[in-house]
Design brief:
The chain has one domain. The chain is built from three helices and six strands; from the N terminus they run αβββαββαβ. Strands 1, 2, 3, 4, 5 and 6 form a six-stranded mixed sheet that branches. Strand 1 and strand 2 form a beta hairpin. It is globular.
């Protein structure tokens, strides 16, 4: 679930989408907490901070041929494992993982996140379950 959905009073996201894990923090007592950013197929608005995913990475992850962007001005924070985890479609094994993105792309995402945070434009939605 993302900020606009939470602001509308929803308790579930309107659609399932892949995400990029940018930070994972292991909790001593129970599981981990993840910070993730969404992957979108719709071209970002000019004021949206996003990094386009290269075609080879999309292919590696099984995301198809359509262009997609990693949106960097919104984080979702939730417990792992948790109710928001869904299996990745089209994989042989039932798993929520699409795969890894290259370190260079992850670094671009983290740099963009830092720029957004420094400008005070970061939206963080915390899943409470």
């Amino acid at each position: 679930m993302w900020a606009h959905e939470a602001d509308a009073g929803r308790d579930e996201g309107t659609k399932e989408r892949p995400v990029v894990v940018v930070v994972a923090v292991r909790k001593r007592s129970h599981g981990s907490e993840l910070l993730v950013v969404p992957v979108a197929t719709r071209s970002p608005q000019p004021d949206t901070a996003a990094v386009e995913m290269p075609p080879r990475v999309r292919e590696h992850l099984g995301l198809g041929n359509d262009r997609c962007w990693i949106v960097c001005d919104e984080l979702n924070r939730f417990a792992w494992p948790g109710p928001d985890i869904r299996p990745a479609p089209g994989k042989r094994e039932i798993s929520p993982f699409y795969g890894k993105i290259p370190g260079k792309l992850l670094e671009q995402v983290r740099t963009k996140l830092a720029e957004v945070a420094q400008k005070g434009r970061m939206q963080v939605t915390k899943r409470t379950e």
